[in-house]
Specification:
With 474 residues, the protein is an all-alpha fold. The protein has a domain at 158-289 and 361-470. The chain has 20 helices and four strands. It has a two-stranded parallel ribbon. α4 (77-95) crosses α15 (344-373) and α6 (126-137) packs antiparallel against α15. The radius of gyration is 22 Å and the shape is globular. The protein starts with a strand and ends in a 7-residue tail after the last helix.
Length: 474
């Protein structure tokens, strides 16, 4: 957990030399929290929930619950933050009570599906649901989180790693999509589901890497082709994406559990978070260790950089609509990093800000996404169809294994290439990325996950549009 050192007004008004001097001083500070892990990571239970003393947590939670049931919980960002942080912290704490299984993603799974289940059962107050939904969708918490992690991860990535990993990434990205479409289509034909139907109704929405490039536009295309209403397809498409996301999280948790047990099934199997297994200076090809201290000023600069990249992505995306604004943000951050357009201290500030948000906000985002996006009734309907489940599982497994194998062939570690682009292409997009990378304990791979979703998703949608004319009418 980051320890933040306050600075006086003079230091805020002076140049970077004073700031560096202060950072060098606080860098040596050792405190009881120095070895504390991020609240969402698997660990033995402690006397704290959401990093707060249990008694204090109970008081804050009681205030929020009473406000929610009395309809006085404000529909604001602050209320959204406290509600999701407290809710997520409790579920993470419960998940960490279970030994062994916690290493395989139980805390993340609880945060992802328990809130949606409670909503489905009518056990959440309406005001809480409204506040959390608006917090994630209207107030932009999802953008806030994803862009912050993208900016911090890319700017904190060694330049050599970015240059060497980027071009190679296209091989597993495109390859796993082609292999998955062909395999799932073939199995669909054998089982009577249909070759094109299996691709368009199951593989395509799953591999699009999110609802925005998956279920939503695909339902419109299919409706236009068949003359039906888009709602006739939305349930199946959404169910495929959500059910696939469950298996993605489970597989990610299994990879994390294997990593904790130091399992190397073959040479280049598990990089324990490192992408590449190629020759080079180790310091250039590995991610630097995370700092556990920063300053208020540095974090403020990091927020400004992340916000600026986000606005740039939105600006360019409004004119060049062939790529999602997230993709333009990634490209901008990569260009800034590759050409060294920012001072090292500013890059470090963006990285520190990303580390802070990653360490404290993952449970909050998972809870928000669960309440805002996941419909348990659709999941239950899909689970009652064995053929649907089988094809969904096949899609996830084939995408994962083919991505891992193709990535391994171009010198990625198998596990890391299986996770991104493999699992990331098959999850629910930005929110699914958080769940998968959190379960795998590889949140620093977020830039590659976002790149997978936006560029890979656009490619999937393009190929889907070419296949739609072959969809049976009636």
């Amino acid at each position: 957990m980051s320890q933040i050192k306050n600075e006086n007004l003079d230091e805020q008004l002076h140049g970077s030399s004073d700031e560096k001097h202060e950072f060098n001083k606080i860098k040596s500070v050792r405190t009881a929290d120095r070895t504390t892990r991020a609240v969402h990571l698997p660990r033995k239970p402690t006397g704290r929930i959401a990093s707060l003393p249990i008694l204090l947590y109970l008081v804050l939670a009681a205030v929020v619950v009473i406000a929610a049931f009395t309809g006085t919980l404000p529909d604001s960002m602050l209320a959204g933050f406290v509600t999701t942080i407290l809710f997520g912290g409790l579920l993470i704490w419960i998940g960490n009570l279970v030994p062994v299984i916690r290493d395989f993603g139980l805390p993340t799974i609880l945060c992802t599906f328990i809130p949606a289940t409670l909503l489905f059962a009518g056990l959440l107050p309406e005001q809480l649901v409204l506040v959390v939904t608006n917090f994630v969708t209207v107030h932009g918490f999802l953008d806030f989180f994803v862009i912050t992690v993208i900016a911090g991860s890319i700017l904190g990535m060694p330049r050599a790693l970015l240059l060497k990993a980027g071009p190679r990434f296209a091989v597993p990205l495109v390859g796993c999509m082609i292999v998955t479409f062909l395999v799932v289509g073939g199995i669909g034909m054998i089982t009577g589901f249909g070759f094109i139907e299996a691709i368009l109704l199951i593989a395509a929405p799953i591999m699009a890497g999110g609802l925005g490039l998956g279920a939503l536009p695909m339902s419109e295309m299919y409706a236009e082709r068949t003359g039906q209403d888009s709602s006739a397809f939305m349930g199946d498409l959404m169910s495929a994406v959500v059910v696939a996301n469950i298996f993605c999280i489970l597989i990610a948790g299994i990879y994390n559990g294997l990593g904790k047990r130091k399992k190397q099934l073959f040479v280049g199997f598990n990089g324990h978070g490192q992408l590449l297994r190629i020759n080079g200076t180790r310091g250039d090809l590995t991610l630097p260790p995370k700092r556990d201290v920063s300053s208020f000023i540095a974090l403020g600069k990091g927020l400004a950089i992340a916000g600026g990249l986000f606005v740039f992505g939105q600006l360019v995306g409004s004119f060049a609509e062939f790529l999602h604004p997230y993709a333009w943000t990634i490209i901008a951050a990569a260009v800034v990093k590759i050409f060294g357009l920012l001072p090292k201290e500013v890059e470090d500030a963006a990285t520190d800000w990303g580390d802070l948000v990653t360490a404290t906000m993952v449970p909050a985002l998972l809870v928000g996404v669960s309440i805002s996006y996941i419909d348990i009734s659709e999941v239950l309907v899909s689970l009652s169809n064995p053929r649907f489940i089988f094809l969904t599982v096949v899609t996830v497994v084939v995408a994962t294994l083919s991505s891992g194998l193709l990535g391994w062939l171009v010198k990625f570690y198998f596990v890391e290439a299986s996770i991104t682009p493999g699992l990331v292409m098959a999850d629910t997009g930005g929110s699914g990325d958080v769940s998968v990378l959190s379960a795998a304990n590889r949140m620093h791979l977020m830039p590659f996950a976002a790149l997978t979703n936006r560029i890979g998703g656009a490619l999937v949608l393009f190929i889907t549009s070419m296949l739609v004319p072959f969809l049976a009418i009636g």
